[in-house]
Amino acid sequence: MRNLFRIYLEKPELAGVALLVLLAAVFEAGSAGAFLSTDNLRGILGLLPEVGLVSIGVTILMICGEFDLSVGSTFALTPMATSLLIIAGVPALAAIVLGLLLAAAIGFANGFITLTFAIPSFIATLGMLFIVRSLTVVVSGGFPPLLPDDLTTGEFTQFVGPGGLFRASFIWFLAITFAASTLLAKSSVGNWIKATGGHLEAASAMGVPVRRVKLFCFMLCSVMAGFGGIIQVFRLHSPLPSIGDGLELQAVAAAVIGGTALSGGVGTVLGAVVGALLIRVIDNGLVMTQVDANWFKLAVGTLTIFAVVSNTWLRRTARRIKVAG
Amino acid sequence: MGTRSIASQVLSGVGVAALSFALAGPAAADDKLNIVYTHHSSASNPFWQAVKKGFDDACAKIQANCQMIFTQTEGSIDQEVANQQAALARKPDALITTLIDNNAFVANLKDAKAKGVIVIASNVDATGGPERELRQAFVGQNFVPAGMTLGRRMAALFPKEGPIRVLVGVNAPGQNWSEQRAKGIMSGLEEFKKANPNREVTIDRLDVSADGAIVSDRVGAYLSAHPDTTAYIETGLWHSNVARMLKDRSIPPGKILLGGFDLAPQVIEQMKSGYIQVEIDQQPYEQGFLPVMQVYLEKKVGLAPADIDSGEAVFTPEQADQLMGLAKQGLR
Fold first, then answer.
1. Which of A113, A154, A181, B53 could lock B330 by a disulfide, CB 3.0 to 4.6 Å apart?
2. Which pTM value belongs to this model?
3. Could you tell me the CA-to-CA distances from A57 to A224, A227, A272 in Å, in that order?
4. 10 Å Cβ neighbour count for A269?
5. CATH assignment of B144-281, among 3.40.50.620, 3.20.20.70, 1.25.10.10, 3.40.50.2300
6. Chain B within 8 Å of A207 (Cβ-Cβ)?
7. A232 to chain B: which residues are within 8 Å by CB?
8. B273 has a chain A CB within 8 A of its CB
9. What pLDDT, in 10s, does the model give residues A89-113?
10. Minimum mean pLDDT range among A280-289, B83-92, B147-156
């Protein structure tokens, strides 16, 4: 038992994995075997890359000691701009790149305003949430445009893997998760991010370019959100201006469930992925087990709190055992 | 506070004022009607952009000063109340508004009456209580009968034999528009159940949310648990995402029947592909256009506003091409 807690202390996201396995077993039993069916796993794994990418971006930014509440709006504006460019005749690849550059510009604006005027990123990005959502409505004219029928999005949407279990977006997601995880865990930039979020003054005194590090994280966060939005719009073939509404809270919840500290400096990319997957599994599993419509949000909220509380308890217990040992 | 700081504050104040001026419409002229439309939806909802287009077109025709005020949060009653208060403080000639709650707007409507402001409910009416006495007319859809029509039309398409399982998707639990439509749908389906006592009919209700990706995921989960599902009927327009999910699962059009409310290009596209069988439209353009005309008639020639049922229009895939043209113009 003591060894298990030690392992947990080294890999805090493992608690989320354990909870994930437990919930999957409960939902599988409650749904008479339908939860782990191919069709249902396809549904969960189809949506996961979209919310997962946003969660990874938000997690890295939180580790750096900042928040971004505008990710839900960026999630909508980036694919809207990309779609409108495609409809206007711009090649899809160029439209995607231009869309992501727009997302990077939003991230830069978030960082520049936060750092230049020394205001909490919580407030700066809250303002940006409204600005970007409004711009989404303005550029679309309020009406959702129709993507061309002959637009090929197979690089993101086609089913791949054994039994067509995944979409191509899942491969993108895995590659980005691996790259982000390596960046955070094994590069000097990763160390700078953790140092900037954990001990800002000490990091600055040691020569870490904290302003540039934060600007990078803001831009990375927005680009991840924008890319997630593009994948979703290509999957649903529907660039609605309302997509991503409330996604910022889900991303923060995923980060915290995955062990990211709200105070900054602590967290992992894998934890963010596990957190996002847990939220999707809870949502999906409750449908499977036929929770009444009126009680649905209560059930989702209760399970989310349970996930965070159990994670926190495990971490404290593991630390106590380590200290005692 | 330094000189530069004061100067920067003054400049930023001037900037905000200039921005407000630039974003505001033309200054009110004395002889023009001032009409305000407050409702419960945010600007990112495409349905309300069609209402706004009708409202703006009507205002242009009678050269009125008009403003439609959206909420920041979808379905927020408190924000709509605050917007009504702000609008009434300017003493407009008319307030067009949605009454999504039977009690929340009573004080504002009394205030409007005291000030001589014409009040017309549009899109959503109060289901009872004093608000119905305080507004002069209602232009919109009666949700329960419209839901019942959808339930009945969908039931008419059910297989003639074997068990029936229907999922009713509630997009906004607790909100009048969604709950009343769901109530109507359930009533229509219950009629079918009573008329077929020897058949096994299961009707489930689910909070599917008002986010296309989540709707698709939750309905997908339900279908995984119940592959024998006959139909999915929704209170909103997000079932076009369900249609796409069915296509991804290689489920042919018509195997699981789909129906819902309101028209958007994405919905019409799925009607054309055969996945959506029945759609109820409430004519959002009319809900923006007609109340303005009623205000004009009351003010200019003394004709009192009257109730108009803008819709329980039933659409089927045969009309999809014609509808697509209107939807692209923002008229449907």
1. B53
2. 0.80
3. 6, 11, 9
4. 28
5. 3.40.50.2300
6. no
7. 213
8. no
9. 999 999 999 999 999 999 999 999 9
10. A280-289
